[in-house]
Amino acid sequence: MLKMEWIKFPIFVCFHPFKGFWELKYEEKGRISIAFLFLFCLTVVAILKRQFTGFIVNFNNPTELNSIAELQYIVLPFILWCIANWSITTLMEGEGKFKEIIMATAYALVPLISLYIISTLISLVITWEEAPLYFFLETIATIWFLFLLFIGIMTVHQYTVTKTVVTFALTVIVIAVMLFLGLLIFSLIQQMVSFVETIYRELLYRM
Amino acid sequence: MVRYHTLTRIIVAFALFLCLFSPIEASAAVSYPSYNYSYWENTDPSPLPYTPEKVIDGRGTSYGLLNSPEDVFVSKDNTLYIVDSGNNRIIVLDENYELIQVIDTFQNGTSTDQFNDPKGIFVTEEGSIYVADTGNQRVIELTEEGEFIREIGAPQSDVIRTGFEYHPIKIAVDKADRIYVIGRGVYDGIIEFDSDGIFTGFIGANRVRFNPIDYVWRIIATEEQREKMALFIPIEFNNLDIDEEGFIYTTNAEEDTSTPIQRLNPTGEDVLRKEGYHELIGDLEYAHTGSSAGTSTFVDVSINQFGMYSALDIKRGRVFTYDEDGNLLYIFGQLGDQVGTFRTPVAIDQLGEDIIVLDKGNHRLTVFKPTVFGSHVNQAVHYYNQGDDQASAEYWKEVLQLNANYEIAYIGIGKSLLMEGKNKEAMTYFKNGHSRSYYSKAYKRYRQEILREHFGLGMTVMVCFFLCVASLITFRKIKRRKVSGVENGMD
């Protein structure tokens, strides 16, 4: 009985986001394990979508597909988003906990997962003239996801609309800063490693 | 082990010996590898499409060495005209490259006249020779025998801007005897004269292109700085050719343009078909620094009767041949000093299936013959152009035997299969040829086929499904009623 509820609640959230996210936060209906399951599902679906979308709307070079690389388009942005949003909202009197941010974001992924599956299946049986249907579904999925994410973050932190918009913009900026710092650290470590390596080699040659 | 080694050596030596005396001519070998661009813009190795057959530089002939020749033209009856600019003369050869005549002087009125650094030539179907006599700033019309007919001077009109200088370099004449002249430094477009030699206007002026950063600098700059900056002027054309239908093909030497080759309709609009995989810009991959950096720089274009056209890139000495839809068919040529390479290639034309490239820097003309591969591609395009998909597909199959990476061939075969109604197979070929539009067509028919075939089964399944659902719902309702009945009874 409990298991049925796990599936039913996310679907309820999709169609009744205001009530749904409220219940997610205050009635503790959301589950972190389900959230990670959704993230995993989206990754798998995205990988399958890249590979198996019908030829007519599939513009990927099959020789360049890499499932591992797919992680960086889904899992990495997800983690960055959650961390950045948490960092910003703790400073901006947001009521959401880190766990709730993860859940809200992950539950918003549900339309992406389901519509991607549908659009991938449809893409296998359409002609070029019917391709707008495919692209329409893709667009719907994205808009729905963004809408849910917006409502989710707003509800979880108990923000007004304007404050949510500002937080969104700030979150994006924080993500950019984090990426920049990350790259900086990577390149510094690289320099250090190569420095140590050079010294080691030099010593080897001289001894 | 040692014996084995010796044996191998003997075999290799024998093979080399055979090669030495094999009937394959030396001309078949060129000093560069051949390539073509795949759908994914990779440079894939390809068989050579053309190999050098003959070099004509005037050595050991009665007319003597060529000196900085600027243009070559092949007339409808396969007579070859070389503009030997350095020697101020025109050399006329027959299709076996034997001398017919040399035109260096002609009787203009009472005096004997001659060319001064001529750079362009065009011969009409009737045999009139038009020469762009650059140094004398005029166009000369001669008869087939080289007798003077008339001269056409600089264009006279109110629309001509001040400071306009007239140095005709290239010329073409259409079937109505309208004369199209390209002038050096003329960015107004192609200069058009009517059949009487009266200036009628400019056509096909290239649009001004500037990049936004330049524009920002220009706004910030002071008056003096602005004056020192380069002007935003349209790029000038550098060559032209006329096809059977009277459309003018032109080239220009602009960097980073997406339209270095244009096909102008009578109103001067570019109507070149671009149905191929990529933009028609010659090389897609190129160095961004170094001596020959940047996009291909086309200096001449030549059209054959099947809608194919070859454009000559002076920067890297390459010839790019496209079909009428804009598919890149093959690439050959390179800068260098060996036979089959060029120093400063300036003009290209076709004699039958042969491609002729004039090299100003090396003072010579190179005749290229198609290889088996090149010839099959030509034939396939030829038949396709004539609407014979079947014959075209046969040649495309031959092409695939020689180069399985030749993606356009798959489309060609697919089209023929589609005509035959083999939709499923056609789909596979279109997929290999990356043609989404044709794949879609084939798939549409295939889907219809399947639906028609399995209509009965599909309907049965659907009816069964609905019946099942309906019965399930009624069953539940009955059950519920019973339950509630029981509950009521309990009460």
Automatic annotation (TrEMBL), chain B:
Keyword flag Signal: yes
Q: Which PANTHER family match?
A: E3 UBIQUITIN-PROTEIN LIGASE NHLRC1-RELATED, PROTEIN LIN-41
Give UniProt keywords alphabetically.
Membrane, Repeat, Signal, Transmembrane, Transmembrane helix
In the UniProt record, the signal sequence range is 1-28
Q: Name one Pfam family in it.
A: SGL
Q: Which chain regions cross the lipid bilayer? A: 455-475
**What's the protein here called?**
Gluconolactonase
The root-end lineage is: Bacteria, Bacillati, Bacillota, Bacilli, Bacillales
> From what organism does this protein derive?
Gracilibacillus oryzae
Q: Which PROSITE patterns match?
A: NHL
